[in-house]
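Key result, reporting period 2: structure in, sequence out.
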């Protein structure tokens, strides 16, 4: 167990190099610190007019959906920078605040109350025999045999579940219009009441963040779930960063679900058929304004991400067009040079040069 005096000594008297296992880990720290942290939204059901937790009744995800935990990003960055990938993907080993730490799958069951048995979803997604007609029947009410990514075609419960998953457990910044195959399968299993390995889902996501440390990873990738990692380290090793937290939790609001839910019994409807707007739940002062600001920034991020992707696509198209034009110009130049060489050889053959000792004027 780490004492508070030891933590203060570590913070003030140690150099940055002592926080890393190798030079490679120190280099990886720079790449992780340049990545944006995507905060997981926390659900406080008493502050939401819509019933969000019941669709998750077949899972053991309710604890992490409601876990509000502040942490210091430096602690999470050290964990990712020193992270070692274990071949069986059942534990995370790292080095945080000059202490070796290990997070086992069982720790996610103990501290986060997650299910540790069942299908491993990342392995299931890699298999080619997914019955997408069953997934689409559950999520959309049709039996299309291919994966359908569009969110707007989802049934109401599917819209709610995927929104909560991508905002809290499978964080995905940017595109909110489409669903990944993983998100579709998780939503299907939850709606069908089929158990899956929830702890392994979290471990696989954190393992996937190790791609950021590789120099060949060009596009920046957001990092997330730091509150879960730091929560387990605090409970298991009593590791608490000696400085005030930098990452505070953000919460779901009614605005998060208003566009997803169309239930007159929730919204209220008087005898004349006019809808009655439910009152906003009582939150901490200025909390509504803060949450609305977060919502607006999320929308701006989505729009920016879509425009950025469009710009990249346009630039790639222009580059491909440029390469085609340059190839055509090189071909034409080669063709012209060949013709000039042929003409030159023609005049050389029928108009031989005079002998060196002959006067050119003769």
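The corresponding designed sequence is given below.
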């Amino acid at each position: 167990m780490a004492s508070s005096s030891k933590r203060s000594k570590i913070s003030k008297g140690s150099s940055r190099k002592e926080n890393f296992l190798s030079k490679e880990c120190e280099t990886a720290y720079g790449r992780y610190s340049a990545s944006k942290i995507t905060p997981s939204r926390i659900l406080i059901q008493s502050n939401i007019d819509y019933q969000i937790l019941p669709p998750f009744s077949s899972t053991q995800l309710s604890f992490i959906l409601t876990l509000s935990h502040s942490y210091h990003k430096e602690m999470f960055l050290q964990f990712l920078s020193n992270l070692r990938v274990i071949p069986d993907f059942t534990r995370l080993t790292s080095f945080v605040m000059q202490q070796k730490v290990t997070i086992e799958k069982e720790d996610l069951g103990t501290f986060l109350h997650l299910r540790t048995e069942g299908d491993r979803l990342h392995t299931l997604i890699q298999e080619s025999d997914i019955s997408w007609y069953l997934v689409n029947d559950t999520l959309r009410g049709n039996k299309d045999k291919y994966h359908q990514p569009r969110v707007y075609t989802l049934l109401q419960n599917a819209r709610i579940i995927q929104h909560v998953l991508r905002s809290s457990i499978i964080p995905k910044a940017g595109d909110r219009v489409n669903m990944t195959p993983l998100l579709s399968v998780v939503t299907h299993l939850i709606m069908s009441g089929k158990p899956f390995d929830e702890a392994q889902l979290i471990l696989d996501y954190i393992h996937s963040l190790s791609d950021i440390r590789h120099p060949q990873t060009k596009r920046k990738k957001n990092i997330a779930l730091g509150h879960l990692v730091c929560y387990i380290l605090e409970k298991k090793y009593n590791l608490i960063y000696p400085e005030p937290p930098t990452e505070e939790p953000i919460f779901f609001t009614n605005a998060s679900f208003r566009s997803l839910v169309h239930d007159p019994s929730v919204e209220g409807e008087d005898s004349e058929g006019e809808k009655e707007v439910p009152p906003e739940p009582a939150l901490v002062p200025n909390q509504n304004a803060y949450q609305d600001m977060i919502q607006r920034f999320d929308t701006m991020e989505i729009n920016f991400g879509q425009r950025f992707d469009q710009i990249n696509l346009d630039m790639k198209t222009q580059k491909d067009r440029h390469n085609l034009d340059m190839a055509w110009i090189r071909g034409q130049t080669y063709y012209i040079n060949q013709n000039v060489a042929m003409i030159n050889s023609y005049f050389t053959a029928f108009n031989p040069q005079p002998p060196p000792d002959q006067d050119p004027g003769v």
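Residues 156 and 262 are 8 Å apart (CA to CA). The first strand starts at residue 41 and ends at 42. This case is discussed further under Risks and Mitigation.
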